[in-house]
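Dear Dr. H.,

I hope your travels went smoothly. While you were away I took the liberty of generating a structure for the chain from your last submission, since the lab meeting agenda had it listed for discussion. I wanted you to have the full record in hand beforehand rather than looking at slides cold. The sequence, exactly as received, is reproduced here:
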Amino acid sequence: MNLGKSLFAIALFLTPAAAFAHSGHDHSGLMAGLAHPLFGLDHLLAMLAVGLWAAQQSGAARWALPLSFVASMLLGGLLGFNGVQLPLVETGIAASVLAFGLLLAVAIRLPLALSLGLTALFALSHGLAHGLELPELASPWGYATGFVVATAALHASGYALVRLLPPAAAPLLRLAGAAAALSGGWLLAG
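The corresponding predicted structure, in token form, is as follows:
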């Protein structure tokens, strides 16, 4: 048997498993929750930016910013699960991409209370959107676990990236913040 026939046989063998990769089969909601922050550009950019911005901070802000984002996002998710709808949620999400991008680009260190308040407010919008988009038949707790884990992983990835980069890479970090801010502006305009 040649390589082409072997690969074709393996592909046919795995085809039934591909059917289970579609959404709707994960009644726990975990996979949908994990995917939501990763595959929505607005969520992905904002959550990475929080981790990057937290790494630029000093003291308690380094852990408090991501933690307040996750906690407030979870609260928003719980509100969304219960059908609470607030106006301008999508605008708040787009504004978060713009704001976190700008904060990252200028490497600003705001007072901790202001940083936490801003982070929590934007995270509430993200969480509300997650909660309102709970897939039918999915467990809210499995879904919430997924989006909390994915968000924490994005924050940690951004944080680790900054901590591992040499100090000479700071202009690249600011450029990434400017790109996120431009994306946020584009999302707000659209």
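Two observations you may find useful: Residues 9-25 have pLDDT under 50 and may be disordered. Residues 1 and 7 are 10 Å apart (CA to CA).

With kind regards,
E. W.
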